[in-house]
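Margin note from the TA: students keep mixing up input and output lines. Inputs are the sequences; the output is the structure of the whole complex. Example:
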Amino acid sequence: MNYWLVKSEPNAYSWDDLCKGGDVIWDGIRNYQARNFLKVMKKGDQAFYYHSGKDREIVGIAEIIEEAYPDPKDKEEKGWVNVKIKATQKLNQPVSLDQIKQEDMLSEMILLKQSRLSVMPVAKNEFNHILKLGS
DNA sequence: GCCAACGTTGGC
DNA sequence: GCCAACGTTGGC
C-alpha cells in the first residue's frame, strides 16, 4: 500500500464535489512528474485530498479505485493518463499547510519543497502523523 | 496583486 | 542544444 497527496483548487473541484461524484475520473494532469506518480498508483492506495489556493489544507482521504489508463483526451498520444478515485474519509480537523510546516516530522514532505507539483507520494510515517493531526 | 519556481516554446 | 521570453501554478 502506498500513500499519496493530490491537490485541487476548491473552485475547480472541491472535496465536496469529490464526495458527490462517487467514482471520479482524475484527469487533466499535464505534468510529467505528476504523471509518473499517477502511473505507479495501485488500486487501494490512499491519497490525501489537498485544497490549494485560498484554503491550503488537507481535507480528506481518497482511495485509488482504478489504476492509470490512457487519457482519452490525449489526442497527440503524449502518454497522459487518468486514474479513478473516490472519497473515503473526511478528516475531523483539516490539516493546514501552516500546521504541516510546524511539524518536524513533516519537514521533508514534497508538498513543502515543490509547491507546484499536484500529485506526489507521501511516506507512511508522514501519512500516519497527518492522520493523527486530523483526528 | 505580486513573485518565485517551473515548464514550455521558439529563435538562433 | 542553448537560452530568452512567456505562461502557469500556488504560496504569500
